[in-house]
Design brief:
Blueprint (H helix, E strand, L loop, with lengths): L51 E7 L14 H13 L4 E5 L12 H17 L4 E4 L3 H10 L3 E4 L9 H8 L3 E4 L17 H18 L7 E4 L8 H9 L1 H5 L6 E2 L5 H8 L13 H13 L4 E4 L2 H51 L1
Helix pairs in contact: 1-2, 2-3, 3-4, 6-8, 9-10
Pathway: Cofactor biosynthesis; tetrahydrofolate biosynthesis; 7,8-dihydrofolate from 2-amino-4-hydroxy-6-hydroxymethyl-7,8-dihydropteridine diphosphate and 4-aminobenzoate: step 1/2
Organism: Streptomyces albospinus
Pfam family, one: Pterin_bind
């Protein structure tokens, strides 16, 4: 891992001045330097000028919605390329299921699953993210061409993760996390889910920055479905502005998750539809969060969400045009009024002479 000769030598970081300030509650540092647009920018990644779409490639036999479909390297690479053809801006490659109750995969097996897929997709020009909680996997994936590390633990599961990400100067997803998947449902206890998630994310961000990660390379993720029930997930989706007040671009990963199944099931006790039948609901969430300023959505089925975020951006553009026209009209009216007053004053002055 980090003791390999030269493995920690990355490109020199560009000079970036962190911008500090308080969030509306006055409790945390808000790293707002990159938030010059609605959804913000991430140093080291393209600016898509809309909510981006991150397609998912699970190189696992046991992921909750598509386990086993892309377990072969060749099939996984083909699927990643298909996702890009369908509209994905980047592809997130993972080799360990984090579904509720999942046991951990050993390091060697995770490396075997992930690194060849990352290497081939990156060689094809795909913007690749690696989904891992292990610093060793993150490091080898970055060396194979990944340009983003997506750690569901936000650096908490492996003490080497933050130093490795910092040394390679790559963007880092800090997700809200309360513990391993094997028992995370027991931790879904909140008095104020949005407030507590914001507080806990802020502390994770502060640890990442203290460990050397450039704040302009940090992305935050509320961790839908991780130590949360359906009500918690819906509350977070409904209150994205409080999350965005942390001052970093926001990744929302709602795809096919349990809370959508609960919504679609309807009545109490009714069986939710299978995960693969929740893609329309996923696209609905993609449209909602894109309009609310999410930086990216992470989805299994790309095409519908790619369409949804583009429609959301068109609506956003129409609203911006209407606001600009209204502002221009108000400015013109003020100018005409001012000119009339000046003309009247001149006339009156001339008459008195």
């Amino acid at each position: 891992m980090a003791d390999r000769a030269g493995s920690r030598d990355g490109p020199a970081p560009r000079e970036i001045r962190p911008v500090g300030g308080a969030n509306p509650a006055g409790r945390h540092t808000a790293y707002a330097g990159a938030m010059s647009t609605l959804r913000g920018r991430v140093a080291g990644l393209p600016d898509w000028d809309r909510c981006a779409v991150m397609g998912v490639v699970n190189v696992t036999p046991d992921s909750f919605s598509d386990g086993g479909l892309w377990f072969d390297t060749e099939l996984a690479v083909k699927h990643g390329l298909d996702l890009v053809a369908q509209g994905a801006d980047m592809v997130d490659v993972g080799g360990e299921s984090t579904r509720p109750g999942a046991a951990r995969v050993d390091e060697g097996e995770e490396l075997r699953r992930v690194v060849p897929v990352v290497r081939e997709l990156a060689a094809a020009g795909v913007v690749v993210s690696v989904d891992t909680m292990r610093a060793s996997v993150a490091e080898e994936a970055v060396e194979a061409g990944a340009c983003l590390v997506n750690d569901v633990s936000g650096g908490a599961a492996d003490p080497d993760m933050v130093p490795v990400v910092a040394s390679h100067h790559v963007p880092f997803v800090v997700m809200h996390w309360r513990g391993q998947s094997i028992d995370m449902n027991n931790r879904a206890v909140y008095a104020d889910v949005v407030g507590e998630v914001v507080d806990e994310l802020a502390r994770s961000m502060e640890r990442a920055v203290a460990g050397g990660i450039d704040p302009e390379r940090i992305i935050i993720d509320p961790g839908l479905g991780f130590a949360k029930d359906a009500g918690h997930d819906l509350a977070l989706v409904a209150d994205l502005p409080r999350l965005r007040a942390l001052g970093r671009p926001l990744l929302v990963a709602a795809s096919r998750k349990r809370f959508l199944g609960r919504v679609l099931a309807g009545g109490e006790g009714a069986a939710p539809p299978p995960a693969r039948e929740r893609d329309a609901a996923t696209a609905a969430v993609s449209a909602i969060v894109a309009r609310e300023g999410a930086w990216a959505v992470r989805v299994h089925e790309v095409r519908a969400s790619a369409d949804a975020v583009r429609v959301a951006r068109a609506v956003e553009g129409a609203a911006e045009a209407a606001e600009a026209a209204e502002a221009a009209g108000a400015a013109g009216s003020t100018g005409a009024s001012g000119a009339g007053v000046a003309s009247g004053t001149t006339a009156n002055t001339t008459g008195t002479k």
